[in-house]
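Subject: Sanity check before I submit

Could someone independently write out the C-alpha cells for this chain? I want to compare against mine line by line before I put it in a report. The sequence has 515 residues.
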Amino acid sequence: MPEESARDGEFAADGGSSRDDEGVVRRDRFSGGPARSFLSSLAADERIFEADLEVDRAHTVMLAEQGIVEDDVAGQILTALDAIEVDGHGSLPDGEDVHEAIETAVIERIGAEGGKMHTARSRNDEVAACIRYRLREDVLEAVETTLALRESLVAVAEAYAETIMPGYTHLQPAQPTTVAHWALAYEGAVGRDTARLLEAYDRINESPLGGAAFAGTTFDIDRERTAELLGFDGVVENSMDASSSRDFLLEVTQALSTHATTLSGLAEDIVIFANRGFVDLSDDYSSTSSIMPQKKNPDTLELIRAVAGDAAGGVQGLTTTLKGLPRAYNRDLQRATTYAWETVDAVTEASEVAAGAVATADWNEETLAAEAGEGFSTATGVADLLAANGLPFRTAHEMVAHAAENSAERSSADSHAAKPRDNGADYDALEAAAREVLGEPLESLVDPDAVEEALDPAASVASRDSQGGPAPEAVADQLELARESQSDNRAALEELDAALEAAHETLREEVNGYV
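---
Independent answer below. Compare away.
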C-alpha cells in the first residue's frame, strides 16, 4: 500500500481536490508512467475491500462527532460508501490501491466534499487498520479449524481408549501404546497452536487509526472512538508505531507455521500408519492412481505435509521483507501482507482437511493389536519389573537386551520356525539371559507369572498409569483436561466473534443516524 508522502498537502482542509482525472488523489507528476501497474495493489486489495469501507465509516462518524466534518457531508459520504459496497470491488475506478480507488469513487459520486473523508488520516494508518480488521476474522477462522481438529482427535481417543497399537521412536518399534494416547498427543500440540493464535489475536486487536502518516494529526480526533466502532480493544499508542509496525503479521504467520508443522507431523504419522495397514482413510480424503487401479493413496495428507513448507516460506519471506526497514512507512510493506494472507489461507484449509481426515478414518484394531508387541516392545516393562524387585535398572536393562539379542539370533537362524512369542522374546529367552548375565535363575528375582504379564502388550499398557500415560485411567484424565481446554477455547472464540459482531452492529447504527 502506498506511503503518504506523495499525498501530503494534496487536499485542502475542506477536502478540495487538486485534479479530477487519473484518480483524484494523486498530483499530475505522480499519476502515471510505466511503473503505475507495478505500484498498484488494487487487485490484491480485494481481500480488504470490506474492511476499508468499515474503516472509512468509523473514521467518518468520528469526524462528524468531533465537529471536524459537517453532519450532512458525513451523511453523503456514508451513503456513497454504502453504494460502493453494493457495486463491489470490481466496480472501483483504477487506482494504486483500494483506498485510493474508494476515495475516488466517493468523490465521483458526491463531488469534492467527498475528499473530507480523508481528513486527519493517512493511507499509512488506514491500511494498517484495514489489515488488522481483516486479519482478525482470518485468525478466528483458523482458531475454529484447530478446535474442529482437536474435537476429532478427542472423538478418536474416546472411541479407541483401549485399542493397543505399536509405539515408535526413530520409527523403530519401541513400546506398546494406544490409539487414544497417540490421538491425545496431537490434541495437546494442536491445543498449544490454538493458544498461540488466540494470544496473537490480542496483539492484532489494537487500532492504529489516527496515527496518520506517522506523526499524528493537528485535528482533534478521538482514536478511542474509532477503535470502539471497529471492535478493537484499544489503540496502538505511539503514532509512528501504529502506522509502520507489522510485527503482528509476523507473529500470526509464525503461529500458523507452527500449527502447519504440527499438522505435518500428524499427516506423516497417518501416511505411515496407512502404509502399514493400521488405519484406513476415507475415500473422501484419498485418491487412486491414474494407471494402477488397486491403489489408494493418502494424497490429502501428503498435501497437508507440504503446507508446512509453504508456511515456513511465508515466515522467511515476511521476516526478510521486514528486517532492516527504517521507521516509519516504507513501500516494502505493500508486499508484506501477501505472505500472511497466503499462509493463513493455506494453513486454515489444511487444518480443516486434517480434521475431516481424522474424523472419518477407520482404525484396524486387529492389525494394531497383532503388531503392538513387534520387536520385543515390552522389553522396557520387563526391565521395570526387575528393577521394582530390587535389581538395579541398568543391570535389568542389560539382561533384557541380552534376551532380545538371543531371540533375534534364533529367529534369524530359522526364518521358517515359529517365534516363541509374537513380540520376539519369551520367558525362556529371559531365563537364559538371567543365567548368562546374573548367574542365577529368573524366578529367584521375580514371579514367573508377573514376567508373563509384563510381556503382554495389553498388560504393559495397562500398567503405565502414570500421569499422561497410555493406561485407560490415565487417558480418561487426559480426555477430561482436553475437553475442558476445548470448552474454554470455544467460549473465548465465541466471545471474540460476538464482540466483532456487536461492534459491526454499533457502527451500522451510527451510520444509519447520518444516512
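---
OP: Matches mine. For the report I'm noting this point. Residues 472-512 form the longest helix (41 residues).
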